[in-house]
Specification:
With 183 residues, this protein is an alpha+beta fold. Helix content is 25%, strand content 33%. The protein is built from four helices and seven strands. It has helices at residues 16-29, 41-49, 107-119, 136-144, and strands at 6-10, 59-64, 72-81, 91-98, 126-133, 148-159, 162-172. Strands 1-2-3-4-5-7-6 form a seven-stranded mixed β-sheet, sandwiched between helices. The N and C termini lie far apart (38 Å).
Length: 183
Amino acid sequence: MKPMDVQVRPGGEEDLDALTEIYNHYVRETAITFDVTPFTPEERRRWLLSYSQDGPYRLLVAREGGEGPEGRVLGYATSSPFRAKAAYRTSVEVSVYCAPAARGRGVGTLLYEALFAALEGEDVHRAYAGVTEPNPASARLHRRFGFAPVGTFREVGRKFGRYWDVTHYERPVGGVGAAPGGG
């Protein structure tokens, strides 16, 4: 896949069915997400509408083959509130999901490149990601983008009849509102 074959842009209502389908694959087939029941597009609408085209909370979509019905959603990346309390507002939690046929084709890299470029101008100081173990591809992607592991929650989620560990990663973002003398 050449980068010119794929367009990364803000996600919108027209993507809802495809985004739901991608996410439901991970719900049904993997422990990558701890959701256990697939969603309908209508159930995911509120999730989609929680993102904006500017600000720290973004939804970016990678499409191949144009915008019309011939185009195909290959994946998406999000930056979401890390925690609800006000002091956390300069931290975001990020994630990336690729359609099964798009895995290993560089789509996750394209999405994270665009997401972190967008976040550079925002008041975001740190980005966090949780990776269900084992997931060597996700661990590599996050390390490639400057994430470092900060801890592992052991057996924190139960899915498919077993317990799963989640390793948490963090990286600086360098937003516009860095605290003086802060690290």
